[in-house]
Amino acid sequence: MQITTLIEPIAGRGFRASTRNPIEISVEAESRDEAIRQLQATLRARLADGSEIIGVESSGEELVNFELEDEPNPWIEFAGGLQGHPLLEEWKKAMADYRDLVDREEAERDALREANAS
């Protein structure tokens, strides 16, 4: 999992590493690398007690359950595996067409909700 982190120098004191979303953490250390290590350790400690970072849809359905892992992404080995496949372009077009359909349906539902709310 990646969490956007601000690394900033602190005049005469080293570096601060901090995050805001999805969890607020701030640490200070003498070096940039040490600040990052401390932030990672603090995040792991916060999640070690069973706490979770998840994404939740407004309907209340759980979308994603993130786990903090040091392991490499297992999907990397498959990246680019479809290059040159005879159905690749057709598959991409089908995905784009489906996404357009879903977007249109969502826009229609939103418009209907707004009309009914008025």
Structure characterization notes:
By secondary structure, the protein is α+β, with helices and mostly antiparallel strands. It folds into 2 domains: 1-71; 75-118. The protein contains 2 helices and 5 strands. It has a 3-stranded antiparallel beta sheet with strand order 1-2-3, covered by helices on one side. A two-stranded antiparallel sheet has the order 4-5. The longest helix has 30 residues, at 88-117. The model is unreliable at 62-66 (pLDDT under 50).
List the helices and strands and how they pair.
Layout: E1 6-10, E2 14-19, E3 25-29, H1 32-48, E4 53-56, E5 62-66, H2 88-117
Antiparallel strand pairs: 1-2, 2-3, 4-5
The total of beta strands comes to 5
Low-confidence stretches: 62-66
Strand content: 15-25%
Q: Major beta sheet, specifics? A: 3 strands, antiparallel
Number of domains: 2
Euclidean distance between termini CA atoms: 42 Å
The helix content, as a percent range, equals: 25-40%
Q: What is the radius of gyration computed over CA atoms, rounded to a whole number of angstroms?
A: 22 Å
Number of helices: 2
What sort of overall outline do the alpha carbons produce when their principal axes are compared?
extended
Spatial arrangement of strands, main beta sheet: 1-2-3
